[in-house]
């Protein structure tokens, strides 16, 4: 009896025990029209940022920046393929993969948390967060009840649930809600799939409210919402959007799941800039009507390495930039922008009298590098692995490779010059005949054919060095394998018997590079240079003197650059620099002359 009374007493005080410590717990529920925190109406003002796009050393500063702008909540996507790089092997510990650590930092700042784990997320991230090993299955169907996809998704959900369970609001943690899938009404209509995902989360111990997020149209909401789940609108910009949702889901609250203070940019475009006046009008409507809001994104960060995705929205293939600055209120390096100050002023005007927003954190320190003198270090041609033989070319994924490059090589028999066509080149290639550069192929520009000149070589050798850029992350073209995805023909004749060389440009490959004593004139060169720092701070690497490739600083992959712009500088965080000597390594697909980096 005494034990029962003690349990009731603790329950009445809303106390839970976490790792031997007592913490006050709260309740979070859905009414028909509002979110209820401890039984009272609660307006979520959320800023979204993605921990995988931010150096872990700066997580706290970015969270504090959001809080100082007026946010009481942080939302984040979880990128499945960032945590399961190899099938069945998960990493939630190293560097900025520490999901639990990120959530706890949010709680330490006295803020709430919204978890958006997918399994599909979009986010302009490679393959929308899905793992590329799925593409090794020739007939795979994604985002549906394909048992092979669901088996992998179940495994991933269990991993996330194990992390999220103790951090739910029901257990004294900050997680208020979990999103099921993402913008599913823009993709498919498998209601069983959506219901199954929700049930899997419940089976693994997730007992907080769920929500879905879709565009504010009847067909998207009908296909993407679930009974009993709150409705996020992408975006909820006016009363008409909310009216559409309330007709579809009258018994749950609706909020603006993605209010866009900025927008994404692809290679070859002008930087996206959004109108601050219309943004402030939208936010004022939401604040006046006590509608909850999630700014997508309050801070974008960086697509380090090969994490940038691509779109296919009517213009063909549209690869995303390395920078995910997004014209967001907090810029790529974590600094406040004029848009930030305008939103802070507006949100702050709704606070009770004598309540003030926290002070804005100090900007991150920066350093200007001296000009870095570069030299030719090596050549991809001198660092080829053992060849894989195939009758016809196969994709990266078929050979257990995600991105980077692959060299396809064959000897020409029969036709030896003329019209060369690569059917479905994914995504960019440089073409060589007998070691001489002939030209490029570019999926983005729809260039898949090239003229091979006549040669006096008896058995001409054709080489096609293919770069796989971001896997498409949205809509109906997401089955996007890399490399030569179909066939190569010369004057209509299918070319057979290929040697293929995997060049993943990963850490193992880069550290194994052998230097080249004699400079090569054949495109596909590595350049390196050194610079010395007395003190470390954030900086940007200006690649204006180079054409198209990848940059590493002290072994860390900063991402891609491309002279078609608009991005010319790559963000390098201080945590990847060191006092004393530092090294820059560049792989460029076209450059044959070493030039300084500014």
Any overview of this molecule?
The structure is a single chain. This protein folds into 3 domains: 2-188 and 196-208 and 296-348, Alpha-Beta Barrel (TIM Barrel), CATH 3.20.20.80; 384-504, Jelly Rolls, CATH 2.60.120.260; 513-588, Sandwich (Jelly Rolls), CATH 2.60.120.260. The strands form 9 sheets. An 8-stranded parallel barrel has the order 6-7-8-9-10-11-12-13, surrounded by 5 helices. By secondary structure, it is an alpha+beta fold. 46% of the residues are buried. The longest helix is centred in the first third of the chain and has 18 residues, at 147-164. It has 11 helices and 34 strands.
- The oligomeric status of these chains comes to single chain
Determine the CATH superfamily of the largest domain. Glycosidases
CATH class of the largest domain: Alpha Beta
CATH architecture of the largest domain: Alpha-Beta Barrel
Domains (count): 3
User: Sheet with the most strands?
Assistant: 8 strands, parallel, barrel
As a percent range, the share of strand residues is 25-35%
Strands, total number = 34
Low-confidence regions: 1-20
């Amino acid at each position: 009896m005494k034990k029962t009374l003690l349990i009731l007493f603790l329950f009445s005080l809303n106390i839970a025990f976490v790792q031997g410590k007592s913490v006050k717990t709260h309740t979070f529920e859905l009414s028909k029209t509002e979110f209820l925190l401890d039984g009272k109406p609660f307006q979520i003002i959320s800023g979204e940022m993605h921990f995988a796009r931010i150096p872990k050393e700066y997580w706290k500063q970015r969270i504090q920046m959001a809080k100082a702008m007026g946010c009481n909540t942080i939302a984040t996507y979880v990128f499945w393929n960032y945590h399961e790089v190899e099938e069945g092997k998960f990493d939630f510990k190293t560097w900025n993969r520490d999901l639990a650590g990120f959530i706890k930092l949010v709680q330490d700042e006295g803020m709430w948390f919204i978890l958006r784990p997918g399994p599909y997320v979009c986010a302009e991230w490679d393959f929308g967060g899905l793992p590329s090993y799925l593409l090794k299955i020739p007939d795979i169907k994604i985002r549906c009840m394909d048992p092979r996809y669901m088996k992998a998704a179940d495994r991933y959900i269990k991993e996330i649930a194990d992390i999220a369970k103790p951090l739910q609001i029901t257990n004294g943690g900050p997680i208020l809600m979990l999103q099921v899938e993402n913008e599913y009404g823009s993709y498919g209509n498998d209601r069983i799939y959506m219901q199954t995902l929700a049930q899997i989360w419940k089976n693994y111990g997730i007992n907080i409210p769920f929500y879905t997020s879709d565009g504010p149209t009847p067909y998207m909401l009908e296909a993407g919402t679930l009974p009993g789940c709150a409705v996020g609108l992408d975006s909820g910009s006016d009363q008409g959007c909310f009216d559409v949702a309330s007709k579809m889901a009258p018994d749950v609250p609706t909020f603006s799941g993605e209010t866009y203070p900025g927008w994404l940019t692809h290679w070859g475009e002008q930087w996206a800039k959004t109108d601050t006046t219309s943004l402030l009008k939208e936010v004022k409507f939401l604040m006046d009507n006590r509608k909850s809001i999630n700014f997508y994104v309050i801070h974008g960060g960086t697509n380090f390495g090969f994490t940038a995705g691509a779109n296919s929205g009517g213009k063909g293939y549209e690869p995303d930039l390395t920078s995910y600055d997004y014209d967001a209120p907090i810029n790529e390096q974590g600094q406040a922008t004029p848009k930030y100050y305008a939103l802070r002023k507006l949100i702050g005007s709704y606070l009770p009298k004598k309540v003030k927003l926290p002070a804005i954190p100090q900007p991150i320190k920066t350093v200007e590098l001296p000009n870095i003198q570069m030299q030719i270090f090596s050549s991809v041609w001198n660092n080829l692995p053992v060849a894989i033989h195939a009758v016809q070319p196969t994709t990266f994924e078929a050979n257990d490779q995600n991105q980077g490059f692959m060299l396809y090589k064959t000897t020409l028999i029969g036709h030896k010059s003329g019209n060369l066509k690569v059917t479905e080149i994914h995504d960019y290639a440089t073409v060589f005949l007998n070691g001489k550069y002939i030209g490029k192929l570019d999926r983005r520009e729809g260039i898949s054919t090239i003229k091979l000149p006549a040669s006096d070589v008896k058995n001409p050798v054709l080489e096609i060095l293919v770069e796989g850029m971001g896997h498409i992350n949205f809509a109906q073209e997401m089955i996007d394998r890399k490399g030569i995805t179909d066939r190569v023909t010369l004057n209509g004749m299918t070319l057979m018997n290929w040697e293929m060389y995997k060049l993943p440009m990963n850490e193992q490959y880069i550290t194994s590079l052998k230097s080249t004593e004699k400079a090569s004139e054949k495109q596909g060169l590595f350049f390196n240079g050194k610079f010395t720092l007395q003190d470390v701070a954030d900086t940007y690497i200006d690649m204006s003197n180079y054409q198209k490739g990848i940059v590493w600083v002290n072994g860390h992959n900063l991402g891609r650059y491309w002279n078609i712009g608009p991005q010319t500088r790559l963000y390098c965080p201080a945590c990847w620099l060191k006092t004393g000597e530092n090294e820059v390594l560049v792989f460029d697909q076209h450059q044959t002359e070493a030039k300084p980096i500014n």
